[in-house]
Amino acid sequence: MTPAGVRQHVSALEAQGFVTHRKQGGEPNRPTYLYRLSEEGKESFPRRYDLFARALLQSMKEEVGAETAMRLVERVGTRVAAALSAGSNGDRWAGRHEALARVERELAWQGDVAEDGAGGLMVTLYQCPFQSVSKQHPEVCPAFFGGLFRTLLGPRPVTCTPVTDGPGIACCRITVGVDPADA
Hints:
The protein is an alpha+beta fold. It has two domains: 3-42, no CATH class; 47-176, Muramoyl-pentapeptide Carboxypeptidase, domain 2 (2-Layer Sandwich). It has seven helices and six strands. The strands form two sheets. A four-stranded antiparallel sheet has the order 3-4-6-5, covered by helices on one side. A two-stranded antiparallel ribbon has the order 1-2. α4 (66-84) runs parallel beside α7 (140-153). The longest helix has 19 residues, at 66-84. The chain is globular and about 50 Å long. The mean pLDDT is 82.
């Protein structure tokens, strides 16, 4: 397809309500846009993996209790981080940008990362692998991302907050705080 053909197709999807976009920057004369499936667009695709994940989480909670189930989800985040950081040496915080790029590629999330000015990070996710699951199990995101970020970046406090303000393009914000040893 030509670039003009792609733009025309994406514009048609947006007019039908299947995608949304936001300006991401780019060169002055050539803005870059980030496109994402809208809620209506997501509903048009079968999501059997969400059904499985929700049922699995519910079964885990019933079988071992909610607290143990979330510790297991946190352990999954830790293992994902360990696999992504295999071969990395040195200061984990100094390599944070490379680590976050690996996470973005592997988890297929789309997000922005900003330094918060106090020595931490704010990650705004626009496409999250747990977005649908977290509607029924909101404790999944803090557990998974807590394990993931503490393993990747060191012993820092991690919070995960669903985004309820704005135009609905972002789904959650993850704050990675200052290492308690540095405070």
